[in-house]
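Justification of resources, computational component.

The compute hours requested in this renewal are based largely on the per-chain cost of generating structure records like the one below. Each record pairs the submitted sequence with a full structure-token output. That output is archived, and it is also reused by downstream analysis tasks.
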Amino acid sequence: MGSILELVNMRDAGAVEAALVEGARACLGVSIRRGSCEVVEVRSIDAGTPAATLIATGDLHDNPLHMARLVRAAGIEDAFAARSAGDDGREPAHLTLHELIHGDRLMNGLDYSYRVLVRAATLKSMFPDRVHVLLANHELAQLTGAQVAKAGVRCNEAFDEAIDVTFGGNAERVRLAVHAFIRALPLGVRFDRSAFAKDQGDAGDIFCAHSLPAPTNLQSFDWEVLERELTDDDLKPRTGAAHQMTWGRGHATEHFDHAHERLGTGLFLLGHELAEEGWHAPSPSAVILNSDHERGVYARIDLTQPEAAQEIGWGCVRLADG
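The structure output for this chain reads:
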């Protein structure tokens, strides 16, 4: 039995299409879906168990080595092996994934990061209430055709050309499946920790997303988008709520305070901004994570315990260390 990440033949158009479509169905059909978010109710569970553990990540940008290490850290490979052996009772920790595509590992100028979407879709299909694949700005740009460039590379075109080269006459089928999967992704996942408020003080909910609306958009932002399914208008560049939610940068403490007031959360775990050391805490209640570069990290969080942003940052695990 191989790795869960290698189940799909990445050159088989039918297999790739099926994996992405099943991933989209899992995103939309999972029992924890609430509007354009997922909500996990953290109930009376023992600290340290997979159900009480979150592996939180930042931008991944098609780093296959780091993705494999994240999957192992969350116990997904072990749970998959157990399930393959007939043991359906073993569950992994919660794992967030976002900003998966448009890496810098090009082949002949082409971006084959459709493959990381297929792997994420497979993980979501197999563990729909434990794997949380979140909408990010690069995925949204690929869906809508809004151009993104990195280091002189037109990312959308390099991505599409790789699909054309790989699948030829079946490329459009694969492209539509890519769009279906991206279209189904939630804007965030909320870990509802209200069951522990009495015992732990006000632990506060944890909200994981790619980013938050830019400081200039916070006052006018349509926060109700998190409570309903996304519309085509939400996806529009610049004006759409999903676009604003995934592109915001430059938040300070007062901006997080405003977002906390609107959402009633205690802690934000985000990506999108560069964190040279893998993480930084722009506020006592927010952590920015990067999981793509050589100093990239993940945060292992006990969902039953209140932790400040700095404590989470100091406890981050560097992915280069394995």
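The chain is about 35% helix and 20% strand. The first helix runs from residue 13 to 29.
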